[in-house]
């Protein structure tokens, strides 16, 4: 194995699982195992939750400025070890090192830094209102308690930080379960938090598959569930949490529209569409996989798109020139291939690039879960490949005739995570974006989600937001207090 055995983490240290069960994590680029991970039993999860409960009183009452100092030390450690952690992410996810070293750890650390600074500068302050001369109303923001974080496999360390940063900054404790497909980062993050000074029990890790997550999220001692994953699983998790009146944040999937306006330069249109479909091998929930192109522009768009496909470079994932990796697992690889097969054989979409073959490599025949970047054109709205989230490098080009038509078609989906518009007339782009039914929108760019930007989906794509000022509100409960200072208690039960 490339990496030593991964254990559970609670009470501020590594802990052996009592299940005596393990699972392997596989390098998607080679299809070979790189690590072994212990699976948590229900008893182990109970212990992790007890550890968090024991830490909560002290951590939640620690002044925000002191919590901030500790979390900022963790930020420094993350930045110092960026490349080391990025290599682990590349082995676990298959994403090129050129991506994990510049995006995954960096953007996660950005969010931790953002919330550490926010709580240090009054971000948890409440409001005060003078109701009348002798009466005031004030509000306070209180930590929720022990929270569960369920990570996703496409951005492991980033998502772990997106969840734990506001959670811990607000004074909560967390029990975190990473995806069983990409579990290696969790122990690293837990140890960085401990090294930075986060008290034992504040951040804990349990490992395992869906049954571990189900037990954790349904546990009566969990105050909030923050989940990132596919829509169907998220609906089950949210239903379970709602039945027990838990707070929830759900960041789920999408089938996002990318609209090219008639005045958009073809070069910009192609660059935007490629970033929205092939970055991270298409394994991004916000990807703009429905690319709407004006009919008159279609020939020029397709021609330039096919010319630029040579710039999608598969290869050694540690090579800095590689910008396209494999899919995350064998299961997901087979799923994406089934969608491509359906697009060709059943939907009868026109395949103009990629398909069933693996991407070409200079000097090797890859053994991992590689699929070529794939482009279907002349697609229609009723095709399965344009209706369902594929979560792979599969672009669907849909011609359109009018702006009114394309807005209606773009919104014709049960999901509403992201949407975007590319064009030169910024006023027109703003008007169209305002009509799109999605929680995250872009104009003349795609995919960037900085710490300052609250992101979350509409419709079946999620509940609540992450990041930005609104993101901190998702980790506190508010208390309002009315104080009467007049010296007399008002009553309707007085003598007439």
From TrEMBL:
InterPro entries recorded: Ald_DH/histidinol_DH, Ald_DH_C, Ald_DH_CS_CYS, Ald_DH_CS_GLU, Ald_DH_N, Aldehyde_DH_dom
Annotated GO MF terms: aldehyde dehydrogenase (NAD+) activity; metal ion binding
Annotated ranges, domain Aldehyde dehydrogenase: 19-480
Enzyme class: oxidoreductase
Sorted UniProt keywords: Metal-binding, NAD, Oxidoreductase
Enzymatic reactions: an aldehyde + NAD(+) + H2O = a carboxylate + NADH + 2 H(+)
UniProt-listed Gene3D superfamilies: Aldehyde Dehydrogenase, Chain A, domain 1 (3.40.605.10), Aldehyde Dehydrogenase, Chain A, domain 2 (3.40.309.10)
CDD domains given in the database record: ALDH_F9_TMBADH
Family: Belongs to the aldehyde dehydrogenase family.
Protein name listed in UniProt: aldehyde dehydrogenase (NAD(+))
Record organism: Aureobasidium subglaciale (strain EXF-2481) (Aureobasidium pullulans var. subglaciale)
Biological classification of the source: Eukaryota, Fungi, Dikarya, Ascomycota, Pezizomycotina
């Amino acid at each position: 194995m490339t990496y030593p055995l991964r254990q559970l983490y609670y009470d501020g240290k590594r802990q052996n699982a009592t299940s005596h069960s393990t699972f392997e994590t596989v390098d998607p680029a080679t299809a070979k195992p790189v690590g072994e991970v212990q699976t948590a039993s229900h008893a182990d999860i109970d212990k992790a939750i007890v550890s968090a409960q024991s830490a909560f009183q002290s951590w939640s009452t620690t002044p925000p400025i002191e919590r901030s100092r500790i979390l900022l030390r963790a930020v420094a450690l993350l930045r110092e070890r960026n490349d080391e952690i990025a290599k682990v992410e590349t082995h676990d996810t298959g994403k090129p090192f050129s991506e994990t070293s510049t995006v995954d750890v960096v953007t996660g650390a950005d969010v931790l830094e953002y919330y550490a600074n926010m709580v240090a500068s009054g971000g948890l302050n409440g409001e005060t209102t003078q109701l009348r001369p002798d009466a005031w109303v004030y509000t306070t923001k209180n930590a929720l308690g022990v929270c569960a974080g369920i990570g996703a496999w496409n951005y492991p360390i980033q998502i772990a930080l997106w969840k734990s940063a506001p959670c811990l900054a607000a004074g909560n404790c967390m029990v975190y379960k990473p995806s069983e497909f990409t579990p290696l980062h969790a122990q690293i993050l837990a140890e960085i938090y401990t090294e930075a000074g986060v008290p034992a029990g504040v951040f804990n890790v349990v490992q395992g598959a869906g049954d571990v997550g189900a037990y954790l999220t349904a546990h009566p001692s969990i105050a909030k569930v923050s989940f990132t994953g596919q829509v169907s699983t998220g609906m089950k998790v949210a239903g379970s949490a709602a039945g027990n009146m838990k707070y929830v944040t759900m960041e789920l999937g999408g089938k996002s529209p990318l609209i090219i306006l008639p005045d958009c330069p073809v070069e910009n249109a192609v660059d935007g569409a490629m970033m929205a479909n092939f970055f991270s091998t298409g394994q991004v929930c916000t990807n703009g996989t429905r690319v709407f192109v004006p009919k008159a522009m279609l020939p020029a768009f397709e021609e330039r798109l096919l010319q630029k496909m040579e710039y999608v470079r598969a290869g050694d994932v540690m090579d800095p020139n590689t910008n396209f990796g494999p899919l995350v697992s064998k299961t997901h690889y087979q799923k994406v291939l089934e969608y491509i097969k359906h697009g060709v054989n059943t939907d009868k979409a026109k395949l103009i690039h990629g398909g069933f073959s693996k991407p070409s490599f200079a000097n090797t025949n890859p053994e991992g879960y590689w699929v070529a970047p794939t482009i279907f054109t002349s697609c229609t709205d009723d095709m399965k490949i344009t209706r369902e989230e594929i979560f792979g490098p599969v672009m669907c080009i849909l011609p359109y005739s009018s702006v009114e038509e394309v807005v209606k078609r773009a919104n014709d989906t049960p999901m509403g995570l992201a949407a975007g518009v590319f064009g030169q007339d910024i006023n027109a782009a703003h008007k169209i974006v305002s009509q799109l039914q999605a929680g995250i929108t872009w104009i003349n760019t795609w995919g960037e989600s900085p710490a300052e930007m609250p992101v979350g989906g509409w419709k079946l794509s999620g509940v609540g937001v992450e990041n930005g000022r609104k993101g901190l509100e998702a980790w506190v409960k508010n208390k309002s207090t009315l104080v009467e200072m007049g010296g007399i208690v008002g009553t309707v039960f007085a003598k007439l």
